[in-house]
Amino acid sequence: MMKRLLCVLAMATAISTAGTAMAAEKTVTLAVDNMYCSACPYTVKQSLTKVPGVGNVAVSYERKTATVTYNDQKTTLAALTAATTEAGYPSHPIN
């Protein structure tokens, strides 16, 4: 009986850790339209950091890009582009 309980606990642990192991951190660079002043990157960054699953955001006014690191189990590329578009800065992936 004890052996069976330990086996069940081991399987449950393996299954629960497999779900998190499958989550992947991804990085995408977005071309961001409508950035015309030096304050625009702040708004773009704020819109992206509010998306659940986003870890890091770097926005370049000079290149008109946003590089975003995110957990693909918590958000999608579509959610990232929707966030910038809703803030007034349409975007699309360039890599």
Describe the 3D structure.
- There is one protein chain.
- This protein is an alpha+beta fold and 95 residues long.
- 42% of the residues lie in helices and 26% in strands.
- The chain contains three helices and four strands.
- The chain has a four-stranded antiparallel beta sheet.
- The longest helix has 20 residues, at 2-21.
- The N and C termini lie far apart (54 Å).
List the helices and strands and how they pair.
Layout: H1 2-21, E1 25-32, H2 40-49, E2 54-60, E3 65-71, H3 77-86, E4 91-93
Antiparallel strand pairs: 1-3, 1-4, 2-3
Task: Please supply descriptive tags for the structure shown above.
single chain; 95 residues; alpha+beta; 4-stranded antiparallel sheet; 3 helices; 4 strands; 26% strand; globular
